[in-house]
């Protein structure tokens, strides 16, 4: 009887344990399924996150590439701006230099023009001085020549040519203006004398058509007055060589110094 009680108790105990185990198994299975579901959900979320992460990485790479491009463009723009500023500064500097060079060239041109004008004025002054000196020199030379000429004329005597017919009034040879004609030493004089007599004009004219004349050449004397009776004839015989004729006029030529009163 005790064994039966003990068996009944054992059976109840085992039944209770079995029930507890079933409950525990059910609870465990429930937890397992819940954990599995949760794990699957977490895995899905993780996969989605991974997928999203991959997408974000692509976007990040694109953004980095675009950022790099934008950075490069900014660098190029800055470099271009720097080059533009540098070119502008260079152009401005070149403009200043060109303006300064133009001003210097204009100043040099004005200075050169002023120097040219000064040189031209100096040249003109020197030319005027040279012309003045040349005029003075020529005037001095002319004065010197005039003085020498006057000195020579003072040493060279001049004469008047005079004539007289049969010891009558003395006549002085004159120029066309009526002034006495003077001759210096050595000046040649040509004198023609008619050879026809008053008694034979018709015969002589009919024979020759003109009066026969004797041409005499004489030079002004070098010292003192001189007569013509001893002069050689030129182109004919001298007056003394002709035969004497009746009523022949005696014409005498002689010199008188101009400085003789």
Strand content: 5-15%
Count of discrete alpha- or pi-helical segments spanning 4 or more residues: 2
Compute the separation of the termini in Å.
230 Å
| Cα-based radius of gyration, to the nearest Å | 79 Å
> Quick one: overall form?
rod-shaped
For the biggest sheet, the summary is: 4 strands, antiparallel
Mean pLDDT score = 76
- What is the H-and-E element order? HEEEEHEEE
Helix content: 55-70%
Total E-strand runs: 7
The chain-level structural class is alpha+beta
Low-confidence stretches: 196-211, 229-242
Which terms summarize this structure?
3-stranded antiparallel beta sheet; 2 helices; rod-shaped; 4-stranded antiparallel beta sheet; 261 residues; 14% strand
Show the helix and strand layout.
Layout: H1 2-155, E1 158-165, E2 170-172, E3 182-184, E4 188-194, H2 201-208, E5 213-219, E6 233-234, E7 251-257
Antiparallel strand pairs: 1-2, 1-3, 1-7, 4-5, 5-6
Can you put this structure into words, describing what you see?
The protein has helices at residues 2-155, 201-208; strands at residues 158-165, 170-172, 182-184, 188-194, 213-219, 233-234, 251-257. By secondary structure, the chain is α+β, with helices and mostly antiparallel strands. The strands form 2 sheets. Strands 1, 2, 3 and 7 form a 4-stranded antiparallel sheet that branches. The protein has a 3-stranded antiparallel sheet with strand order 4-5-6, with no helix packed on it. The chain is rod-shaped and about 245 Å long. Residues 78-114, 178-248 are annotated as: Disordered. Residues 103-114 have a biased composition (Basic and acidic residues).
